[in-house]
């Protein structure tokens, strides 16, 4: 589930979509304000949290300017 601002920042929209696509359907992503996101990983232990964190880092680092533009 994702909560995103419907107006404004296309970069934040892109990042929100990337986060949602990278995480499980049961996880929750919310944009709190400029530059701040909340991610809830229900029923996830420390190992699962570390795995999700690494997956998110890889996803964000793998974004190319071309991919962001075509989104």
List the strand order in the largest sheet.
Answer: 1-2-3
Taking all Cα atoms into account, the compactness measure Rg is 12 Å
Q: Would you list the SSEs in sequence order as H and E?
A: EHEEHH
Number of helices: 3
Query: Average pLDDT, to the nearest integer?
Result: 83
Beta-sheet strand percentage? 15-25%
**Shape category:** globular
| N→C terminal distance | 19 Å
List the helices and strands and how they pair.
Blueprint lengths: L1 E2 L6 H13 L5 E6 L2 E5 L5 H16 L3 H6 L1
Parallel strand pairs: 1-2
Antiparallel strand pairs: 2-3
Give a verbal description of the structure.
- By secondary structure, the protein is an alpha+beta fold.
- Helix content is 49%, strand content 18%.
- It has helices spanning 10-22, 46-61, 65-70, and strands spanning 2-3, 28-33, 36-40.
- A hairpin with a 2-residue loop joins β2 (28-33) and β3 (36-40).
- α1 (10-22) packs across α2.
- The radius of gyration is 12 Å and the shape is globular.
- The model has no long low-confidence stretch (mean pLDDT 83).
């Amino acid at each position: 589930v994702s909560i995103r601002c419907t107006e404004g920042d296309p970069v934040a929209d892109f990042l929100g979509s990337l986060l949602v696509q990278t995480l499980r359907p049961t996880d929750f992503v919310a944009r709190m304000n400029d530059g701040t996101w909340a991610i809830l990983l229900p029923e996830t232990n420390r190992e699962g949290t570390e795995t999700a964190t690494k997956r998110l880092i890889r996803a964000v680092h793998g974004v190319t300017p071309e991919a962001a533009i075509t989104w």
